[in-house]
């Protein structure tokens, strides 16, 4: 039996010396595995006489039980120690503030917000959205819109032109969203009621101008459209957008190649304390241009100006955002400053509606 006592002492010593569960598993396999020492002893019982087998088998099973118990106890100790070490290394300071999730940190850019507001307001009036490419032809951007040859807008100092193609024609970055009106009139029959928001490009940069900016234009083409309709639409838009119960507007004669008559529109405002407020005060602020669609434009788009009339208007989305939300410099909108966006931006789930208010 001395061999069993020696094996017991050696195995129990190895178990006690195991410092982790991996080392303990190695000891278990060396003792109780298929090729382990105790398993090998059990395999020899078949060659013994019944008397020897009874005595020897009982002793080996006692050893097996002792080793199994020792393995279980040591495993429990090692598991507890491992858990304590893990808890100590992964301690969380619950006094620290939690991190904001992306939904709380992220902000909608004021330009995107204003575009959503415009869409909500004009959709309520029955307008749909029309879009077109940023890269346009000279024909759609100028010729079909009644710009004469030699007009200043056709010059390089005002418009971004691409290099001439093989046939001599030049494409350009659209200077307004009016080409979308042309594409709409060419693609569908009246009645037409659309707004055309999008990016536009001009060679200009200062506090209130950027080389790339955003514009929205509106177009109505139908039988019997007149200035009264235009005036009502613009008044309703200003009341809804600036969230005031009433507005006063004045229409001043102007000139645009694509409208006749053409007008610039001022809205009544107050500038007290350096803050612009609409619907009150004695000052005036120009906000948009408009007019009746020129018969030549209607004719250039394949419609009969004797049968159909229409009106159009255009305004800068960036400037509308500046006026409504108190932004002082247009260039800040395109600098990508997270601090600026955190201050002027809107939470992602604030959806502008006419019922709940478009101001966010």
What does this structure look like?
Strands 2, 5, 6, 7, 8, 9, 10 and 11 form an 8-stranded mixed β-sheet that branches. Strands 1-12 form a two-stranded antiparallel sheet. The longest helix has 40 residues, at 50-89. Strand 7 (249-256) and strand 8 form a beta hairpin. The protein has 12 helices and 12 strands. Helix content is 41%, strand content 21%. The radius of gyration is 41 Å and the shape is elongated. The protein folds into 2 domains: 2-89; 106-347, Bira Bifunctional Protein, Domain 2 (BirA Bifunctional Protein, domain 2, 2-Layer Sandwich), CATH 3.30.930. The chain has 360 residues and is of the alpha+beta class. It starts with a helix and ends in a 13-residue tail after the last strand.
Quick structural gist:
This protein has 360 residues and is an alpha+beta fold. Helix content is 41%, strand content 21%. The protein folds into 2 domains: 2-89; 106-347, 2-Layer Sandwich (BirA Bifunctional Protein, domain 2), CATH 3.30.930.
**Full CATH superfamily name of the largest domain:** Bira Bifunctional Protein, Domain 2
Distance between the termini: 88 Å
Shape: elongated
As a percent range, the share of helical residues equals 40-55%
What's the story with the biggest beta sheet? Answer: 8 strands, mixed
According to DSSP, the number of beta strands is: 12
Strand content: 15-25%
Radius of gyration, taken over Cα atoms and rounded to an integer in Å:
41 Å
CATH topology of the largest domain: BirA Bifunctional Protein, domain 2
Quick check: average pLDDT?
86
């Amino acid at each position: 039996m001395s061999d069993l006592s020696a094996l017991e002492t050696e195995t129990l010593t190895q178990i006690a010396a195991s410092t982790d569960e991996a080392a303990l598993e190695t000891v278990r396999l060396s003792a109780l595995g298929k090729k382990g020492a105790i398993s090998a002893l059990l395999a020899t019982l078949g060659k013994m006489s019944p008397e020897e087998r009874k005595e020897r088998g009982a002793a080996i099973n006692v050893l097996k039980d002792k080793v199994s118990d020792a393995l279980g106890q040591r495993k429990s100790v090692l598991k507890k120690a491992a858990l304590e070490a893990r808890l100590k290394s992964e301690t969380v300071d619950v006094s620290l503030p939690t991190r904001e999730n992306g939904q709380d940190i992220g902000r909608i850019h004021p330009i995107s917000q204003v575009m959503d507001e415009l869409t909500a307001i004009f959709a309520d009036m029955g307008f749909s959205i029309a879009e077109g490419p940023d890269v346009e032809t000279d024909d759609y951007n100028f010729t079909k819109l009644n710009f004469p040859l030699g007009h200043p807008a056709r010059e390089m100092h005002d418009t971004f032109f691409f290099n001439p193609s093989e046939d001599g024609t030049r494409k350009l970055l659209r200077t307004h969203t009016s080409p979308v009106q042309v594409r709409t009139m060419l693609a569908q029959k009246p009645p037409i009621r659309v707004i055309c928001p999008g990016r536009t490009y001009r060679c200009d940069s200062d506090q209130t101008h950027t080389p790339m900016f955003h514009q929205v234009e509106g177009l109505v083409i139908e039988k019997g459209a007149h200035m009264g309709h235009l005036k009502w639409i613009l008044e309703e838009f200003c009341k809804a957008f600036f969230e005031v119960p009433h507005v006063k507007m004045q229409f001043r004669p102007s000139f645009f190649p694509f409208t006749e008559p053409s007008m610039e529109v001022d809205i009544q405002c107050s500038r007290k304390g350096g803050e612009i407020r609409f619907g009150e005060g004695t000052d005036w602020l120009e906000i948009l241009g408009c007019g009746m669609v020129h018969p030549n434009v209607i004719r250039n788009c394949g419609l009969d100006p004797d049968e159909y009339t229409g009106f159009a208007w255009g305004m800068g989305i960036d400037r509308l955002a500046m006026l409504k939300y108190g932004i002082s410099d247009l260039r800040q909108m395109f600098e990508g400053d997270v601090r600026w966006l955190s201050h002027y931006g809107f939470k992602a789930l604030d959806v502008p509606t006419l019922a709940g208010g478009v101001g966010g």
